[in-house]
Amino acid sequence: MTNEAGRAPVEVVEYTDPLCPWAWGSEPVFRGLRAALGGRVHWRRVYCILFDHDDDPAPDPAAETAWYSRYVEDISGHTHAPRAYPLSRVAASSWPVSLVAKAAELQGTEVSERVLRRLRESVFVLGEPADTPALALSAARGVAGLDHERLAADAASTAVLDRVRADHAEARRPVRAVLSVPDGSSPHPGAAKETPD
């Protein structure tokens, strides 16, 4: 069943980041939900940019990595997702992985799902976040059905950059419902996280 635009009448928006430990832990649940819904909804991913390029660098990178590793361990305890040990560093930027993930969408759902999985695995399986353009493209190398040259060109394009910039902006304009989620016992109750911007 589709509407006049040829899309499913219900849209699911997944706010995510390839380097986010919560997104990594929830990926199997979302995969199951997409399969169960079987195309009856329009599923759209918005890349939020967890690690922004204008974030202040850590004064002590080793201490930050140790703290972040414990943070990821706590989340893994909650989601039961595997995690890399040790983690080499905290990602410097989510922009490269988000650009590559968004560019992969232009090659179809199956390819983009595989690329996104590889980008997530860079940090949560291998412990080496794909936080540069070269690392993000390298993480995607060898994905079945992927045109790697096209991926590199699309990831560097103004059109894909504009789409990720739009995602970044959308993620910072949450709908009212996520601003009023009551804080319960969950370490991540589903409410939007307030930041200075």
Can you offer a commentary on this structure?
- The chain is mainly alpha-helical.
- It has a single domain, classed as Glutaredoxin (3-Layer(aba) Sandwich), CATH 3.40.30.10.
- The chain contains 7 helices and 2 strands.
- The chain has helices at 21-37, 61-79, 95-104, 109-124, 133-140, 148-155, 158-171, and strands at residues 10-16, 41-47.
- Strands 1-2 form a two-stranded parallel ribbon.
- 27% of the residues are buried.
Give the fraction of residues assigned to helices.
40-55%
Outline the low-pLDDT stretches: none
CATH class: Alpha Beta
CATH level 3 topology: Glutaredoxin
Radius of gyration, in Å, reads: 17 Å
Number of helices: 7
Task: Itemize the secondary structure elements and their pairings.
Elements: E1 10-16, H1 21-37, E2 41-47, H2 61-79, H3 95-104, H4 109-124, H5 133-140, H6 148-155, H7 158-171
Parallel strand pairs: 1-2
Keywords summarizing the entry:
197 residues, Glutaredoxin, two-stranded parallel ribbon, 7 helices, 7% strand
In short:
47% of the residues lie in helices and 7% in strands. It has seven helices and two strands, in the order βαβαααααα.
